[in-house]
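Fill in residues.
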């Protein structure tokens, strides 16, 4: 019983996720963890226990590919973290770009064991194995922004790419 992330891209991917947490530790019942580094071709164990306890994830690479949605949108620091879901960054951290607001992609699965295969292109939407799910990046107009931990993030911008 566990959740794995598999990198099927030629780029290193960084990811974080939202999971069910002990209400004693996080009164809202959810926590968030990251950043995990996933080398090209690697598979990383992210969660030990039922994969159904992981609600959503966010992933990005250094070339602007992003796997995200808006469930939930929450503050995430640019360094490693283990926080409760409703913990927010201070305005100073946001101004200094040490923290940012990210939208997470929902994981809908009835599987106890799940592998999320992050890929750039795929002619198949599902795997022949029931516990492997193919995940394509989100499409949007973006510009580059470099963060202190080496991730280049792209953010929405009106008009053309700069």
């Amino acid at each position: 019983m566990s959740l794995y992330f598999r990198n099927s891209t030629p780029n290193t991917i960084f990811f974080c996720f939202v999971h069910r947490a002990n209400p004693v530790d996080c009164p809202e019942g959810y926590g968030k963890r990251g950043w995990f580094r996933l080398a090209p071709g690697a598979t990383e164990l992210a969660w030990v226990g039922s994969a159904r306890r992981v609600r959503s994830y966010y992933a990005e690479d250094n070339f602007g590919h992003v796997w995200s949605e808006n469930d939930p949108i929450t503050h995430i620091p640019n360094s490693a973290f283990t926080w409760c879901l409703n913990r927010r960054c201070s305005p100073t951290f946001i101004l200094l770009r040490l923290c940012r607001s990210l939208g997470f992609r929902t994981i809908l699965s009835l599987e106890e064991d799940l592998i999320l295969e992050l890929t750039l292109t795929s002619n198949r939407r599902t795997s022949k194995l029931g516990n492997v799910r193919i995940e394509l990046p989100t499409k949007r107009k973006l510009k580059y922004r470099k963060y202190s931990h080496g991730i280049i993030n792209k953010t929405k911008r009106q008009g053309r790419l700069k």
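The chain is about 5% helix and 45% strand.
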